[in-house]
Amino acid sequence: MRKIAFLAGAALMISCGTTTKQPKAETANSLTETAVLAAPVTPEGVGAHLEFLSSDALEGRETGSEGIDRAATYIADHFRQAGIKPFYPQYRDTLENYQGYAANVVGYLEGTDPELKDEWVVIGAHYDHIGTVKAVDGDSIANGANDNASGTVAVMEIARKLAVVKDRRRSVLFALFTAEEKGLKGSAHLAKRLKDEGRKVYTVINFEMLGVPMTQDYLVYMTGYEMSNMARMMNEIAGEAIIGLLPKAKEYQLFRRSDNYPFYKTYGIPAHTFSTFDFTNFGHYHKAGDEYGLMDPGHMANVIERMLPLVEGVVNSKQNAVYLQETGGLE
Length: 331
Description:
Elements lengths: L33 H5 L4 H11 L12 H17 L2 E2 L5 E3 L8 E7 L9 E8 L5 E5 L2 E3 L3 H18 L8 E7 L7 H12 L3 E8 L12 E3 L7 H9 L4 E2 L2 H5 L9 H7 L3 E5 L21 H19 L16
Parallel strand pairs: 4-7, 4-8, 8-11, 9-10
Antiparallel strand pairs: 1-3, 2-3, 3-7, 5-6, 9-11
């Protein structure tokens, strides 16, 4: 999650070899293993992804670093094996609003409905973190397990599962954003590029800090809860209230502080972030203590599995089913 002044505080494993700043061509693998893709989301699979992405070897995944380059390769390989095609010629889309090399990782699944497939549902999370910090007990790597390897894993697993869904009315764009920690630059770049290309984005479902359970009586909260009918629609699909409103999210304007916001600004559409960080359940924000060992892969697997039918419901919803509503002001 982008730095906020008020805050205190197995699966598809690949080689950890160093890559160059300018990546080689990455294209989708046409051969996929359906049984692997259709396998359930498990704590073991989630944990394997999470452990790699938050390992010391990636050195905190700071934008432009060797570590985030290796993370991008890992995500692209997962997309390739899942049958997720690169949205641009390569999975990596180089930012135009950042000095130096930085790239989002972007893949897609084409929709099947002739009338709705040109509408895009963006499913995203930022995969960058802040690199290193002042050492505490000899540890200076801010691993970013919760922030935001956890959200990254959610997007990777949702992509894998949606790849085997036969009927997807809308097209789905899977975006792992870089430079969120530098000011939402990765999502701002992609929102602008899609707009300039004339792409119609229907809605954005963004994931942020899902590593530990909430202390609330619902599963996840949604930023900008009152700004659209998204939460109400998802809870109707679920048959229970699993998406809640977190008053502190509104108090601290979290709607503006993650990668949903540039899409809202650019398109004026429902664009929300889903999280389980509730200000009481995790004390290592932007610290060296944000490590894999504190994460709960079982909780994460449960969140992903229960969000899957809700995401699919949005993708397959009727025209204009998700919409903004008057709230008396931006959260």
